[in-house]
Design brief:
Layout (H helix, E strand, L loop, with lengths): L1 E8 L4 E9 L1 E3 L2 E3 L11 E10 L5 E3 L1 E2 L2 E2 L1 E6 L3 E9 L10 E9 L2 E2 L6 E6 L2 E7 L1 E3 L2 E5 L1
Antiparallel strand pairs: 1-2, 1-5, 3-4, 5-6, 5-9, 7-8, 10-11, 11-12, 11-16, 13-14, 15-16
Length: 142
């Protein structure tokens, strides 16, 4: 059993799922610990309970003969706290840059966000690198 967060993209005229959380058995109960995934798409969406078929296809779960779903709106302002470091050795021909930051929304730390750092210089992309994650901290270096 899964709880999915579904959206409709009006521009592309298609539906998509931005988050899919599995239920975990706790004694005789199935429990879904719902936290907003920081990678979930913002805006209007629908929470839907589903099962997954053997081929990976979604099977809607009916409650009292009706699809179990509820409308939601995912939003909030993301705040960032950034610290930067760079090498400053006068005799070196290269410089290393490190950016460490944390993200929060409504004073709640955002964890496990999937990010890439894109570095630009004079409007041109210089490098694109994955961002590392450690607890509530994110680190990018180049």
């Amino acid at each position: 059993v899964f709880l999915t967060l579904n959206h409709y993209d009006k521009i592309k005229e298609r539906s998509f799922t931005s988050t899919k959380l599995p239920a975990v058995q706790d004694g005789n109960d199935l429990v879904i610990n719902w936290k907003v995934n920081p990678n979930a798409a913002s805006g209007d969406g629908t929470l839907v309970l589903i099962a997954e078929g053997p081929g990976g296809d979604d099977i809607p779960i009916l409650v009292a003969g009706k699809l179990f779903s509820t409308a939601v709106n995912i939003g909030g302002d993301i705040k960032e706290n950034v610290t930067t470091f760079s090498s400053d050795d006068y005799y070196s021909s290269q410089t290393a840059f490190i950016v460490q930051f944390d993200l929060s929304c409504n004073s709640v730390p955002l964890r496990d966000v999937k990010l890439r750092a894109v570095v630009e210089y004079e409007g041109e992309e210089v490098v694109s690198t994955p961002v590392g994650v450690f607890d509530d901290k994110y680190i990018a270096s180049w």
